[in-house]
Structures are given as structure tokens and as C-alpha cells.
Description:
By secondary structure, the protein is of the alpha/beta class. It folds into two domains: 22-264 and 464-490, Aldehyde Dehydrogenase, Chain A, domain 1 (3-Layer(aba) Sandwich); 268-450, Aldehyde Dehydrogenase, Chain A, domain 2 (3-Layer(aba) Sandwich). Helices cover 36% and strands 22% of the residues. The strands form seven sheets. A seven-stranded mixed beta sheet has the order 16-17-18-15-14-20-21, sandwiched between helices. A six-stranded mixed beta sheet has the order 11-10-9-12-13-23, with helices on both faces. Strands 7-8-24 form a three-stranded antiparallel beta sheet. β5 and β6 form a beta hairpin. α2 crosses α7 (195-206), α3 packs across α4 (110-127) and α8 (221-229) runs parallel beside α9 (242-254). The protein is globular.
Amino acid sequence: MSTTPHLYGSHSPVSHPTVRLLIQGEFVDSRSTELHPVVNPATQEVLAQVPMATPDEVDAAVAAARQAFVTWKATPLAVRMRIMLRFQALLREHLGRIAHVLTLEQGKTLADAEGDIVRGLEVVEHACAVGTLQLGEFAENVANGVDTCTLRQPIGVCAGITPFNFPAMIPLWMFPMAIVCGNTFVLKPSEQDPMSTMELVDLAMQAGVPAGVLNVVHGGKDVVDALCTHPDIVAVSFVGSTAVGTHVYDLASQHGKRAQSMMGAKNHAVILPDAHPVQSLNALVGAAFGAAGQRCMATSVAVFVGAARDWLPEVVKRAQALKVNAGTEPGTDVGPVISPRAKARIEALIASGVAEGAELLLDGRGVQVAGYPQGNFVGPTVLAGVQPHMQVYAQEIFGPVLVCMAVDTLDEAIALVNANPFGNGVGLFTQSGAAARKFQSEIDVGQVGINVPIPVPVPFFSFTGSRGSKLGDLGPYGKQAVQFYTQTKTVTTRWFDDASVNTGVNTTISLR
């Protein structure tokens, strides 16, 4: 495996490299004695070990960020933008190498790993336009000789907590937008696959991010809680599970911080009988089983309306044709899931679906992959006849499992989707403009795709979400991220041409 040596501590022949922290511009060894393995999910090979940072190390990272904020907030916009321009160029230059590291530690295919980085890179490119994104407003002569303007100013030390499934994209959603707006940042990557995230952070430092502006600590719940309660942190951004996201949002909010939590999902694809069958089914299968279903925007529920239910055999046929293998192997469509624990949970949910009466059309349990007998593989799985009360529908499976449901009308499909507690993403497949317009108007979901299976918006817009999929009113990138990472200051000014003018004392609230 090709890695960047200075990101890891020294190790003996019988141990593994230890992922370092980033504090005050230096990659440093943690003093923690609690180390967790970073495991290749296709082989169970231990790639590295990651330390659970000590309370003193978390404090040191926050202190470095607080000190750096004093000068960074006054750094000209043009300087910040030029750093982002260099950063995006370095990301492009090293994309293949980082994707290889990402695949080894996370399991997704090399092509999908590159896509992971590129979707984050798009946010970095958008950050290069902060000069226009952070503009305030101005109105002349709002009262007699009075002008008013608004300023968008950075808020201080911010923190980000990121998940295992997108170790490149999600960190790139967070720290570039935060620091380009003039804030400083403390990042806590997933302890399951921090290596590719550290590669990104290293490139950010090479691009010219000053010491202390970006810091990294590793850890579990103790570190998360320390970030959410630290008195010098003003905002916390989170992407991950609903249980953890709710905890983060509540704890950070209780301690007076801005918070945003993008959480769980149960994304539906509604297929109308007039949809283009080839395009729609290809999109459905790709969105259901890509990344082994470990996407918060994966399509995990297919809702067939009317005669479209007759297409189920074609779904199974396409799913059967997907190649399950290690992400590094050419032609792989579905890689391993992140851990043996995740695999066991997915297989248990499949079993529960069968026990509750669902029809198992394609069973991915027990799949064998030549050359990788220890891999956490689950093959594409299709369950039909699923009802809302079943656990395979009620829970986010986060694996390569597509549950299929059937309704008679579009109105029933909309009611079904809106009754689900999650509201992250949804798709409609149709050739009817009238049906599409009705759907996008009535559906209560953040990201809506019309003949688009995974409708993650480009960074000119903002990632949204509703109901149980999101806490906080602002998304993690786009214009909403600028709002989240800045505070609005309103300045009202009045200048007198003739200081000798005396209009008397005015005790009313109005400006004359």
C-alpha cells in the first residue's frame, strides 16, 4: 500500500503504523494507549492503528484553532481563495493514490473511491468562489442620510465529525467551506477508515493552510462529546447515523453551539408504468447496490406503481449480474461492507424480512469470493412483498439490500414515502411531466430526483433533508454552508456634512 509516511508514527516489525494527529500544523504521535485497528474489509488485514486522542490532545487541537483564528479571520478573501485553488489542484494530482488508500480501508471499488473524492472536490472548487459567496448587502439612504449594510463574518472554531462511508467526500464538504469563510477547524474522521482523510488533510497543508487553522483528532464517543461540549468551539457539523447524530445535535445545542446533523435515510424510488424500463431499472439497480448500499443516499426501497410491478424479474436479473469482489479487483460492482459486525447486522435484517413474510427473490447471504475468504461480503439481495411494519422497511439496512413494495396509484406512493420517518432522498421514474410536478410538490423529502436515482445536489445548491434525516436548518455545503459558518452583522451609519447643524434631542425610535 502506498501511503504518506509522515502521517504515521514509527512502528516495530510486529506492530502496525499508527495514524498521527494534526495539531498546530504538525503531524504528531498521540500519547494515547487506546489504539483501534484500521482493517481492510476485503481481507481483514490490519492496515494501521488509530489512537483515541486524550482529553489533553483535544484541548491542544482546539487551543491551536482558537489561537489561529485571531489572524486567519483577518486574512484577505483572495488569499483564502488561492489556497483553495492550490488545494483542488493537488487533489486532482493525487486522486488515484488517495482512491487506492480509500478502497483498501473502506472497501468500495476504485472507481467509486475516485467518485467519492471528486464529489468532495466539487465543494472545494465552489469554495474558490468565496469572494462572491460571502458578500454582504448594502442599502443607501434607508433614512435621512442613513446607510445600512450587512457583513458576513466568520464565527470562530468549528468542528466536524465524519462517517466511515465517505471518508473523502464528507470531510471535503466540511473543512474547506468552514476555513475559506475565515473560521478554524477541528476534524474528527471516522476511526474505521481515517487514512484517506489524513491524505486529504496533508494536501490541504501543502496548499498553504496555516498552522492551527485545520487540526485533526481521532477517537470515539469521548472525543465526540469533548468537541460538542468544549467552550471554545462554536459550531459542530455531523454526518452519520440517526442515533449518533441526534446525540451530537442535542449535546452541542445544549452547550450553546450551532449544530447540523445529517443522519439516517430510507430512500425510495417510485416507478410509474410509463417510465422508460431500461433506463429506470438500470438506475434503480445501480443506486441500490453501488457502494454495497453503504450510502446515505442509496436507493433501498423500490415502490412499483400499478403495472410496473411486473418489472420485478428484470430487477432480479440485473442484480444477479453484478460482480461481487474486492474493490481493488477490476470489474467489481459490489465490494465488501465495512466490518464483520455490519455484515452480521445486514444478514440478520434479511432473515427478519423472510420471517415476517417478505419474499426473498435474491439472497446475497453467504456469498463466496475467490481469493478473499475472510471478506465482509454480502451479495445483492432483493425482497418483495415488503410491508411498512417489517423491520427491513422500518430500519436503515445500510447494505446491498433492495426492498420492493407495490401500490396502485401515485397518490398511494406519495403517502407511503411521506409516512416514513426519514426524509433524505427520493426518486420518481416517469415520462409524465404532470406526474413529476405533482410528486415534487407533494413529497416531503429533502433531495428529490426525477429520473435521477441519487439526487445529491451539486455544490451550487445545498444538501437538504427533512424530518428524521436532518437536524438543523442549514445544510453542509453550498449557500447554506456559508450561512452556517458565518454570522451576519448589520451596520447602520450616518455622517454629517455640517457638524454645526443642531436638530435638537430626538427621543423617538425613528431615524429622521
